[in-house]
Amino acid sequence: MLEGKAVIGETDMLKTMQQDALDLAAKALDFFDVTEATEIACFIKKEFDRTYGPGWQCIVGTDFGSFVTHRSGNFIHFQIGSLAILLFRGSAGPDPEASQFTGLEALDKLTV
Predict the structure, then answer these.
(1) How do the domains of the chain map onto residue ranges?
(2) CA 34, 47, 65, 14 torsion: positive or negative?
(3) Segment 8-38, tens digit of pLDDT
(4) 22 vs 2: CA distance, rounded Å
(5) Which of 21, 27, 68, 78 lies 20 to 30 Å (CA to CA) from residue 12?
(6) Count of CB atoms within 10 A of residue 87's CB?
(7) What are the DSSP E strand ranges found in 1-112?
């Protein structure tokens, strides 16, 4: 278990979902050593998939950068001691069927 209080950096989650993320991180740190970042991330991701539906991504480590697209209301970045945790539900972007151009037509329009 890593000692220290969780400090939320950025989030757009509801408070109850934020608390679930913090609770799961604490539980994961009870099960795994702080050096087992992949196992911690897997544990949190699988629990969020089970509770809130599929599509969650989790990144855990002491030093990483990120730039992600996420669904609104489904993002949290927090720190417990030196361990940072990024949890978000991915977004595939705009619906391709909604676009007026598809496939090579869209590529042709970009090159004109």
Answers:
(1) 6-89
(2) negative
(3) 999 999 999 999 999 999 999 999 999 999 9
(4) 13
(5) 27
(6) 27
(7) 6-11, 56-61, 70-80, 83-90
Residue with token string 């702080």: 34
**Residue 63, C-beta contacts closer than 8 angstroms, at least 6 positions apart:** none
Map residue 37 onto helix, strand or coil. Answer: helix
- SS3 at position 55: coil
Asked whether the CA dihedral 41, 43, 46, 48 is positive or negative, the reply is: negative
The per-residue pLDDT for range 28-72, each reduced to its tens digit, is 999 999 999 999 999 999 999 999 999 999 999 999 989 889 999
Number of helices (H), then strands (E), belonging to the chain: the values are 3, 4
